[in-house]
Design goal:
By secondary structure, the chain is of the alpha/beta class. The chain contains 13 helices and twelve strands. The strands form two sheets. The protein has a seven-stranded mixed beta sheet.
């Protein structure tokens, strides 16, 4: 099957090369990236193979753009003084991450645009992190592990399903949509998973992640069958080598997710009697429900003493004591 094409037409050669390099490195939704410095060249190329997406610089735009065969056309707007109408507008001078997120987000929502059904190139492994006592180190350990794997050259997606994460404050960012928006969209448009994933995901230290839920009640409303659908799509349709899931009981498919995991990392605190009692309770429940596969895949670990003192930068957990510990933990499994 011929690759879908994303074409960019602009008179600014420096901008063209910079955007092309970014897109080729990120490779959103498997698009083939084409660049043109003249409208006439784009017209000729589209006659042979229509574009899926076309980005046209506001200053190079002329009436011949209507002759370009493309499913969706966006104008790279600079000052908005050209009076161009009839096309979607996207600000040219913004972060490339935001620009592509806006383009793919709108493209995914357009019913007239084609799907991208496919199988992933990699065999994807699911790693779950869980702590019965909701230890605050669980998310640090999970994200640290994801960063360790990314540093080793793997493609990693991190999903945080904790009720409260504080990520916007900790990472000094803001989210307009979150993991629940992604899930609801995919449940209705499974064939456009990659478009929505690439429009919504963020990146930290080489790790892709979906913004955590603002309201954990939204997670509770997703039933276990829906969790299974979304996870199967991510495991078999994306190109991630690992999906690292920061798990809590907000998931109605809690046990099913654990059962489908390749490894389950259980954070424990041997110095805390309460923590130890909760861990024994959890394992006793698994035994009573005969979840043998979950028990077989469980790996208990603990964090270094005073780990909080050196984990103030989520952007670089790899070099922290937590990152060093997790590198050893995953190296043994």
């Amino acid at each position: 099957m011929k690759a879908k094409q994303l074409a960019i037409c602009d008179s600014d050669s420096g901008y063209l090369k910079m955007l092309q390099a970014y897109l080729q490195k990120r490779n959103p939704a498997d698009f083939e990236i084409l660049i043109f410095d003249m409208i006439s060249k784009a017209v000729e190329a589209s006659r042979e193979s229509p574009f899926e997406i076309l980005l046209v610089g506001e200053r190079i735009y002329d009436s011949n753009v209507t002759k370009i065969s493309a499913s969706k056309v966006y104008i790279l707007q600079e000052d908005g003084l050209r009076g161009i109408t009839g096309y979607s507008m996207v600000a040219k001078y913004q972060s490339m991450e935001c620009l592509i997120a806006q383009v793919l987000g709108e493209f995914a929502l357009d019913d007239s645009c084609s799907s991208v059904g496919r199988r992933g190139k990699n065999q994807t492994m699911l790693l779950c992190f869980y702590s019965p006592d909701r230890h605050k180190g669980q998310s640090v350990a999970a994200l640290g592990t994801a960063q360790v794997l990314a540093d080793e050259g793997y493609q990693v997606l991190y999903l945080n399903l904790m009720p409260f994460t504080g990520f916007e404050e900790l990472l000094q960012t803001s989210y307009e949509a979150d993991v629940t928006d992604f899930m609801y969209f995919v449940l209705n448009h499974s064939d456009k998973l990659l478009y929505r994933l690439d429009s919504l995901k963020r990146c930290i230290h080489g790790v892709d992640y979906l913004p955590p839920a603002l309201d954990y009640a939204d997670l509770l409303h997703i039933n276990k069958e829906e969790w299974e659908i979304v996870m199967n799509l991510l495991l078999y349709s994306s190109d991630y080598t690992y999906i690292v899931m920061d798990l809590s009981e907000t998931c109605q498919g809690f046990y099913d997710l654990l059962e489908s995991s390749d490894h389950i990392y259980l954070l424990t605190d041997p110095t805390n009697l309460y923590s130890q009692a909760m861990m024994r309770h959890f394992k006793k429940l698994l035994q009573a429900k005969e979840y043998r596969k979950i028990l077989e895949h469980c790996v208990e670990f603990e964090l270094p003493l005073n780990w909080e003192d050196s984990c103030d930068r989520f952007e670089n957990l790899v070099s922290s004591p937590v990152g060093i510990r997790m590198k050893g933990v995953i190296g043994e499994t």
